[in-house]
Amino acid sequence: MTATAVEDRPRTLRPAVLGLPLRPRLVVMCVGTALAAFGVFCLGLALGDYPVPLVDVVPALWRSGARGTVFVVHEVRLPRALTGVLVGAAFAASGAVLQAITRNALASPDMVGINAGATTAVVAGIVLGFGDTLGTPTLGLAGGLLGALAVYLLAWRRGSTGFRIVLVGIGVSWMCTSATDYLLTRAKMHQAQEAVGWLVGNLNGRGWEAVRPLGVAVAVLLPAALLLAGWNRNLQLGDDVARGLGTPVQLARGLLLLVSVALVSFATAAAGPVLFVSLAAPQIAQRLARLSAPPVLLSALTGVLLVSGSDLLARHLLPDTDLPVGVVTGAIGAGFLLRLLVRSNRAGSGG
C-alpha cells in the first residue's frame, strides 16, 4: 500500500472533552459512580434517630414536605452530608493530580507533607490561640501551601521530578508530624481534646460554616484541575516527551501542584486529615476506568462515594457510637495501601 493511499484513508475522530479522548467506559463509570454516591448520600440523610422515608428525602432537600422532615434533612443532616461530599471530592481529586504528576501510585497528600503542613498549622492555631482569629480554612490553606512550597524547593535541582517530590515530601511530612506532636504536648486539656478530635478526620457537628468555603474552593479548583488535564496527561509520558509535545513542564507541574495543594488544604481545614482517601480513591478510579493514570473526575466521584459510605458506616457501625469518619477510611485505606505495596513489590521483583 502506497503512502498516498494511507494518507487518503478516512480517519475516525474520537470525541474529546478538554482536549482528551472521550472514552465510553470512563463515561459509564462516572455515571454509575455518581448514581451510587447519590444513593448513599440520600441514605445518609434518611437514617438517624429520626428516620426519614427515602422517598421524602429529595423533596425535603427542596424544602417540600412535612415541616419536621424538612428541618431534620435540611438543617440537621444536610450540612454534614455536603461536607462529606466536598471533602471526598477534594481529597480524591488532589490525590489523582499528585499521583499523575509524580507518576507514583503511592504518592498522595497524606504522605508528601501537604496534609501534614495543613494539620500543623490548624493545630498551632488551636493550641497557640490564634485559630479563632484566622479561621481553620485560612490556617489549613496556609499550612498546606507552606508544606508544599518546602517540598518543591527542597526537591528542586535544575527543575523538579516526581521521584524527588515524593522522597522529600515524606521527610517534610514527618517533620510536620513531629511539630504537631510537640504542640499537643504543650496544649491544655480542652485544646488537646479539640485538636485530637479534629486530627482523626471528623464530620461530626459540621455546619454550614464548614460547607460554604469548601464549596467555593471545590467549585473553583476542581474545574481548574480538569482544564489542566491535557498538561497532566503529557507529564505522565515523561518530561522529555512532554516538552516535545509543547508542554511547559515546570510551569505545568507547579500549577498542578498548586491546585492539588489548595484542594487538600481546604478539605483538611473543613474536616481534618481524613486518612487514605487521596491515596485509595484515585487508584480505585484508575482500575474502574482501565486507564494508565487516575482520571480526575472519576477519582472525585469515587472519593465522594468512599467518604459518604464511610461516614454512614461510622454513624451506624456501633450502637450509640458516632465514630469519626477517618477511623473507617483509615481501616479501608490501610488495607488498600498494603495491597498496593505487595503489587509494587511483585512488579519490582519480576513477580
Give structural notes.
The protein has 351 residues and is mostly helical. The protein is 74% helix and 1% strand. The chain contains 16 helices and two strands. It has helices at residues 3-8, 24-46, 54-61, 67-102, 114-128, 131-134, 136-155, 162-185, 189-199, 208-227, 229-235, 239-244, 249-271, 277-289, 296-316, 325-348; strands at 16-17, 20-21. The chain starts with a helix and ends with a helix. Mean pLDDT is 82; it is low at 1-19.
Provide the descriptors you would attach to this structure in a database record.
1% strand; mainly alpha; disordered N terminus; 16 helices; 2 strands; 351 residues
Number of helices: 16
Provide the gyration radius in Å.
21 Å
N-to-C order of helices and strands: HEEHHHHHHHHHHHHHHH
Describe the global form: globular
Q: How many angstroms does the end-to-end distance come to?
A: 42 Å
Q: Percentage of helical residues?
A: over 70%
Strand order of the largest sheet: 1-2
Structural class: mainly alpha
Share of β-strand residues: under 5%
Concise account of the structure shown:
This protein is mainly alpha-helical and 351 residues long. The chain has helices at 3-8, 24-46, 54-61, 67-102, 114-128, 131-134, 136-155, 162-185, 189-199, 208-227, 229-235, 239-244, 249-271, 277-289, 296-316, 325-348; strands at 16-17, 20-21. It is globular and about 60 Å long.
